[in-house]
Amino acid sequence: MPNFSSTTCKAKDPATCRYHNPSNLALLDAAIANNDFAEYEKIKNRIEKEEQQAFIHDETYRNVKKMPALFVINRETHEATNEINESAAWIFEEPARATLKRDGTSITVTGDGQVFARRSVKRGKTAPPDFILAETDSFTGHSFGLEPIEQSGFNKMFKEAVGEGSLTAGTYELCGPKVNGNPEGLASHKLLAHGSDEADEIPDMSKLSRAEAYETLKTIFAGYKERGIEGVVWWGAKGKRTKLRVKDFFGDPDRH
Q1: What's the confidence (pLDDT) of residue 47?
Q2: What is the pTM of this model?
């Protein structure tokens, strides 16, 4: 079984949670053992619908869960295959707005003014105080969620980005000189609202065949790589989101 973080399960009934239900874990483990990454994604997406974690369905913390990638990702090479991830296939059938995915760290501002930074907890590590669990990656055992901005290592950069201004509720990307190596070369720290930058180069995916998608997007993403852009997020109805990153095509030079 995967070795999960020590974060506490928040499911109403842990037996139905995909992180603790033995039968669900067995299905995931079988797919992992067979290196069947497409099957892994199908199982994960199916049982995700059965989760009982109130966090996942609480609109207070929207856009925190990891988005499915457009293509099935080979979990050994960490690169995209040319196989469409079925949980993302909706972009070929429904209206989808493509926006640029910036390379920073995610910030959540709630309706009552609380501010959280996205935080990951590696397998076997203890979560920080007041950590709010969003999900655990069944393949790596890493947990993802939120921590109060005041205790985050990004707090100083966040304050610089906000200055004397105020923020409306929503999610943002904190980018700048001291965040993720500043691939976009910003001179100061900025908060960029998620979904605010249209990806004009991306074609209407509903008019593109699945067979054409891989090579078409890879050509566009080569240009993004030169510009230091992390990738693209597609937005659909009822909160649907799908992503694709430059590193999914060309690898991650910082991965060891």
Answers
A1: 57
A2: 0.73
Longest dimension (CA), the chain: 53
- Residue range 69-99, pLDDT digits in tens: 999 988 788 899 999 999 899 999 999 999 9
Parent domain of 162:
103-196
Extract the tokens encoding 132: 């709010």
- Give the DSSP H or E segment for 200: none
Residue 190 in tokens: 């900025």
Q: Note whether residue 145 is domain-resident.
A: yes
pLDDT in tens, 147-168: 999 999 999 999 999 988 788 8
Q: What is the pLDDT of residue 135?
A: 79
Strand partners, 245: 231
d(CA 11, CA 235): 27
227 three-state secondary structure:
helix
The helix (H) or strand (E) run that includes residue 158 is: helix 155-162
186 in a domain, yes or no? yes
Residue 86 lies in a domain: no
CA–CA separation, 98 and 70 (whole Å): 12
Ranges under pLDDT 50 in the chain:
1-7, 50-61, 256
- Contacts of residues 109-115 at CB distance under 8 Å and 24 or more positions apart, as own/partner, are 109/167, 109/168, 109/169, 109/170, 109/171, 109/172, 110/60, 110/61, 110/169, 111/60, 111/169, 114/148, 115/148, 115/149, 115/158, 115/167
> Is the residue at 53 inside a domain?
no
